[in-house]
């Protein structure tokens, strides 16, 4: 490592940090943008039904909607509580 | 039929009005009859940037409410006879705009003009969504800065879902990236997002890079669209952008750091 590199590396590259943060954020926001508008309500109603039978937390259900070409997938994930 | 261009960004202060004024003047100077409309009802500024603030009699809302005709409200530019300005109302609130009213105005202008440039306000309120609703082309003005890039991406989402073309299932609005306030030297130091970075994140066609330039403030101080300052880097950048938009093949400039000779190093800036 040359002396010049030493001085350079002491400065953080904030642009690459900005890019990384933006890429994650934009990907996340684009994914939620294409989701059907009924999704949050669907999640709430499913949660209500499941809670009739099992005591689960607010965040026990995740509903994901994915679009890949002509194929649309609705993914439902329920985390059950540990058996006591 | 006129081609309708919306100049949009989501975030404020990135250069929408500067860009609208420059692009409209550039198109008009090339002989295309052009109208530029300020959609920022309540906070109009295009008149000031165009230097016609003392000639405003009627405005956009007057025309929508049938209080004035289009011809009464349009202000003819004194430097270019192909350019007309339609100012926003300063007193009414933004709810004075309606889709039908704006549609009627654009339809009226379409008969007579080749290009209609819509200067969108910041945000995603009615003024902004109406400015883009009827657009054929969108110029997305973005600064190489995180909040601006994020907001631009948000606008792209709205352009592709809430425009007339989207609702009618027509060919989507053509979207172009205009990267403004760019500093190649700061990009080189790793302090600023590069053109490639922004393009990669937004996946947009780059129409041009406008460098950070003192000439922009000088131009707005005097009410002259910066494109008329042909010596300035920003003025030249906008002239290139107009040329590229019209289909000319112009290599991109102002992306690399300018090489200063010994003279330039000694006597500095522009």
TrEMBL record, chain A:
SUPFAM superfamilies to which the protein is assigned, alphabetical: Cell division protein MinE topological specificity domain
One GO process term, biological-process aspect: cell division
Keywords: Cell cycle, Cell division
A GO molecular-function descriptor: identical protein binding
Stored InterPro entries: MinE, MinE_sf
Keyword Oxidoreductase: no
Function: Prevents the cell division inhibition by proteins MinC and MinD at internal division sites while permitting inhibition at polar sites. This ensures cell division at the proper site by restricting the formation of a division septum at the midpoint of the long axis of the cell.
HAMAP family noted in UniProt: MinE (MF_00262)
Family the entry assigns: Belongs to the MinE family.
NCBIfam families named among the record's database cross-references: minE, PRK00296.1
Protein name: Cell division topological specificity factor
Lineage of the species this protein comes from: Bacteria, Pseudomonadati, Pseudomonadota, Gammaproteobacteria, Methylococcales
The encoding gene: minE
Automatic annotation (TrEMBL), chain B:
SUPFAM superfamilies per UniProt: P-loop containing nucleoside triphosphate hydrolases (SSF52540)
CDD domains: MinD
One GO-annotated biological process of the protein: negative regulation of cell division
Gene3D superfamilies xrefs: P-loop containing nucleotide triphosphate hydrolases
Entry annotated with the keyword Transcription regulation: no
Pfam (any one): CbiA
Keywords (A to Z) from UniProt: ATP-binding, Cell cycle, Cell division, Nucleotide-binding, Septation
Record-annotated CobQ/CobB/MinD/ParA nucleotide binding domain positions: 5-226
MF-aspect GO terms: ATP binding; ATP hydrolysis activity
Positions bound to ATP: 11-18
GO cellular component: cytoplasmic side of plasma membrane; cytosol
Domain of life of the organism encoding this protein: Bacteria
ATP-binding found in the keyword field: yes
Function of the protein: ATPase required for the correct placement of the division site. Cell division inhibitors MinC and MinD act in concert to form an inhibitor capable of blocking formation of the polar Z ring septums. Rapidly oscillates between the poles of the cell to destabilize FtsZ filaments that have formed before they mature into polar Z rings.
Family label: Belongs to the ParA family. MinD subfamily.
Quaternary assembly: Interacts with MinC and FtsZ.
The protein's name: Septum site-determining protein MinD
Taxonomic source organism: Methylomonas lenta
